[in-house]
Each structure stands twice: as structure tokens, then as C-alpha cells.
Write a structure and sequence with these properties.
Elements: H1 13-24, H2 29-50, H3 55-84, H4 93-116, H5 119-141, H6 154-170, E1 173-174, E2 177-178, H7 179-213
Helix pairs in contact: 1-3, 2-3, 2-4, 3-4, 3-6, 4-5, 5-7, 6-7
Length: 214
């Protein structure tokens, strides 16, 4: 079983009740993981449309994007809880635990890039986000513990995207920068730092293990 990301809300009574209800109703963790892509697609589309709308529709798009990002995270929370605590894990669970996350990152961040008129930056954000997961999984493949360190791991990426969506409703620009455009840069740069931190930790651990075998 892959290591689980430390999430404080996993220990809450409300989360436990919701996970139990989902398991009792026969909803599989794989289905929950798949629905994370649906919510991510809705968030990405909402971000994209926000760049072509104004007034009330602009607000609706940004609120929809924020909700989509958060429901994507809720799916990420409950798929693991239903699989582990609910005892409904499946043999192909590890695939559905990881693959939809990569698709969801791309859908949201590329949509954000399209909405700001900077599609290339959106793709860069998606690539760097996927890169953070690649380094983590590469370390796990070498027998090391999964490294979930930030500063821009998945929960932080979604926090920035969600916060930017809400902030942009009230303050579209900061110092001449679009809030959503600025959020993309924060995600890109933070993800690059995250990749470097995880890579350094993995290299250090591999070297230490090699010395221990001598």
C-alpha cells in the first residue's frame, strides 16, 4: 500500500462519518478518484471562462473554480479513507490513487493559464506540478519513504488556486498584476523549489543508504 499524505482533516469526526457513509453505500474509492478529474475539469473550465466574462458571470466562474478545486481535494481525501478505513481497497487502487491527480493538476492549471491569457504559463505550472509527484514516486521506487514536503505540494497548489479565485473577485489586480496570473507564477516557482527539495532529499538518502551498505 502506498504511503499516505499526512492530512489533519482525515482525523476529524465529520470526515470519518462521510467516509463511512460512502463505504456503506458501496461507492468505491476508485470511483471517487475518478470524480476528482470531473471536478478538476469543471474548475479548469471555470477558470478558462473567467477570462472571457465580466460582472456577475465573472464572479460565478471564479466561485465555481474555487468550489471545483476544493471538491477535487475532498475526493483525494475520501478515496483513501474509503479504501483504508472503509476496507474497500482494490488491486488497481494504487493506479487510481495517483493517475487522476496528474490529470486533475493539468486540467486546473492549464485552465487557469487559458483564463489569464498565458496558456504557456499554465502548461508550465501543470508540468512542474506533475514533476513534484514524479520525484516523490521516484524516491518511493527506490525504497525510500514518500516525500510530501512543500512548499508547493498538492494541497498548497490547490490552496493558492482557490485563494486566488476568491481574491480575484474583490481585488482583480495587485501592483498591476492579475491575481490569477500571479497565482500561476507562485505555483510554478513553488513547484520548482519543491522538486529541488525532494530531489536533494532523495539524493541524500540514497547516498546515506549506500554508505550504510559498505
Amino acid at each position: 500500500m502506498p504511503e499516505r499524505r499526512p492530512i489533519a482533516s482525515r482525523n476529524s469526526k465529520l470526515a470519518a462519518r462521510v467516509a463511512k457513509a460512502l463505504a456503506e453505500r458501496g461507492i468505491s474509492p476508485n470511483l471517487i478518484s475518478q470524480f476528482s478529474m470531473v471536478f478538476a475539469a469543471l474548475a479548469g473550465m471555470a477558470f478558462w471562462l473567467s477570462g472571457t466574462t465580466s460582472g456577475f458571470l465573472y464572479v460565478v466562474c471564479l466561485v465555481g473554480a474555487a468550489i471545483g478545486c476544493q471538491f477535487r481535494l475532498l475526493c483525494n481525501l475520501f478515496d483513501g479513507m474509503v479504501a483504508v478505513e472503509g476496507g474497500r481497497g482494490a488491486p488497481d487502487g494504487p493506479f487510481w490513487n495517483e493517475a487522476p491527480d496528474r490529470v486533475a493538476d493539468a486540467l486546473i492549471l492549464v485552465g487557469l493559464g487559458l483564463g489569464t491569457g498565458h496558456p504557456g504559463l499554465g502548461w508550465a505550472a501543470a508540468a512542474s506540478a506533475i514533476g513534484t509527484a514524479y520525484v516523490r514516486e521516484l524516491g518511493s521506487a527506490q525504497g525510500l519513504g514518500a516525500d510530501f514536503c512543500g512548499p508547493m505540494a498538492k494541497p498548497q497548489r490547490m490552496a493558492v488556486a482557490t485563494g486566488a479565485a476568491i481574491l480575484a473577485i474583490f481585488v482583480p489586480e495587485i501592483l498591476g498584476w492579475s491575481v490569477l496570473h500571479l497565482a500561476l507564477w507562485i505555483i510554478v516557482l513553488g513547484s520548482v523549489v519543491t522538486m529541488l527539495r525532494r530531489s536533494r532529499g532523495m539524493i541524500t538518502s540514497l547516498k546515506s543508504a549506500s554508505k550504510g551498505d559498505e
